[in-house]
Amino acid sequence: MTSQCRRLDGRFALITGASRGIGRAIAERFAAEGATVAINYAGSQGAAEETLKSVQAISAEEGFADRKHRIVQADVGKPEAIAAMFKDVLAAFGRLDILVNNAGIQTETPSETYPLADYERVIAVNLTGALLCSQAALRHFLNRPTGSLGYGAATKHSGGVILNCSSVHEIIPKPGYIAYSISKGGMENLTRTLALEYADKGIRVNAVGPGAVDTDMNARWINDPKMRHDVESHIPMGRAAGAQEMAAVFAFLASDDASYITGQTIFACGGLTLFGDFKKNWSS
Ligand code: NAP
Asked: What's the structural domain count of the chain?
């Protein structure tokens, strides 16, 4: 990976669910742009170690060989694990500038029988976990010295960035996945409410809404040519995305290039949110 920019040089980031998929790509991209990253995972220690190796190699390649990246195990569906994760990361880094709430899961069952235990687990990981991580990051952002983000004496705030990994299902219903739909719908107001509450403190809160991305979450169809073709036929741009294409949007929102953007969800979805059925007129 050769990055053209060093927009995150000197920043410290925690990315939840970074052992695989979109989270891993975010960790790699942030490292390429100069950040030091904490790679959170829940159960896949081996994958997290692979990500760490890859991130270290990328940092070295980009001239940031001294970055002390780390792995931190925590199930973000468990409040006590989140508290321990922040303790670990803040003790190791001494500061945090960027939180990415990326960890996410889904399960499929018709809504009339969707198990309560599944509902509670999906909400705990995707939404409550994002809130609890945001709270811990906010407390740190609000209590650290001013000028921490490198804006210098010109700002009276320490600043900070929170990014949420949402989904096109923030606004498009996903029948059979009621807990996932609710979690991503909730993420919109998590993003917007925190953005408004802390805008005057120099803290920006935004989200990225991916469409269909080539990750393990889509293992059911991504490696089956027929099923993949069927899925991609519904995407206006005609293809699933690579995780790196999501990471690029996260890097932009994390950087000072997005210094005047808060409370927004950027849908990186190949046009999925454009009501593709209306491409050819059928309504008038
Ligand atoms: P993925 O390939 O399945 O990877 C999920 C990641 O989340 C893994 O690193 C996993 O860690 C971690 N994770 C799962 N449960 C966790 C928990 N309780 N605590 C901490 N980490 C946990 O998924 P992905 O496709 O990259 O998805 C990442 C995010 O993008 C999710 O929020 C998802 O909703 C969103 N998204 C994905 C797509 C898509 O098409 N892929 C589309 C829209 C939105 P372990 O390896 O330890 O299990």
From this structure: 1
For residues 53-62, give the mean pLDDT: 98
pLDDT digits (tens, 9 = 90+) for 185-234: 999 999 999 999 999 999 999 999 999 999 999 999 999 999 999 999 99
CA 247 to centroid of chain Cα atoms: 8
Helix (H, G, I), strand (E, B) or coil at 57: helix
Which protein residue's CA is at the shortest distance from atom 3 of ligand 1? 217
Residue 80 structural domain: 12-274
**What's the CA gap between 28 and 30, in Å, rounded?**
6
Q: 24 lies in a domain? A: yes
**Any ligand 1 atom below 6 A from CB of 270:** no
CA 47 to ligand 1 centroid distance, Å: 13
**DSSP E strand boundaries for 189-280:** 203-210, 265-268
Lookup result for tokens 């990014």: 163
State how far the Cα of 86 lies from the Cα of 82, in Å rounded to an integer: 6
Which residue matches tokens 């029988």? 113
Q: Does 171 map to a domain?
A: yes
Q: How remote is the CA of residue 280 from the centroid of ligand 1, in Å? A: 35
Catalytic residues: 180
The answer as to whether 115 is a domain residue is yes
CATH number of the domain enclosing 225 = 3.40.50.720
Note the pLDDT tens digit of each residue in 10-22: 999 999 999 999 9
pLDDT digits over 91-103, tens only? 999 999 999 999 9
**Does residue 154 surpass a pLDDT of 50?**
no
The secondary structure element, H or E, covering residue 239 is none
